Amino acid sequence: MEPLEPLEHYAGAGRDRCVFLGPQGGQLRRITFRDDWIKARHGADIAAGIHFGDLRHTGNNVVAATAGTRELMTHMGHSTARAALIYQHMTGTGIVRSLICWGR
Predict the structure, then answer these.
(1) Residue 39 to residues 23, 43, 104: CA-CA distances in angstroms?
(2) How many angstroms separate the CA atoms of 49 and 26, rounded?
């Protein structure tokens, strides 16, 4: 299976589609998100210590390894370079390799 293949089957449609959908195919609701995350985590055999926010941090670190500051800002949804520069600095320390290995 290709990395993006699940998006074709499980994500919403269109340019602004949601990657994670609720049980009825719409946006996840904040009130039930924790239960949805735990169920998804169990289904994907992800350790209990992994939190949803960890996915964002890992993705930002992976993108920071090859993206410029402006590209990373866009990816993260930030309007200032501060956070992007922090992530770019961390990629030089080998943290991306550590995070990728940690997930195995």
Answers:
(1) 12, 6, 20
(2) 27
Please name the amino acid found at residue 33: F
What does the alpha-carbon distance between residue 33 and residue 40 come to, in Å, rounded to a whole number? 10
Q: Which pLDDT does position 1 carry in this prediction?
A: 45
**What whole-number distance in Å separates Cα of residue 81 and Cα of residue 16?**
24
pLDDT at residue 101 is higher than 60 = no
- In 3D, which of 66, 104, 71, 69 has the Cα closest to residue 86? 69
> Nearest-5° angle of CA 23, CA 25, CA 30?
65
* CA angle, 28 then 31 then 32, to 5°: 60
Per-residue pLDDT tens for 28-39? 888 888 888 888
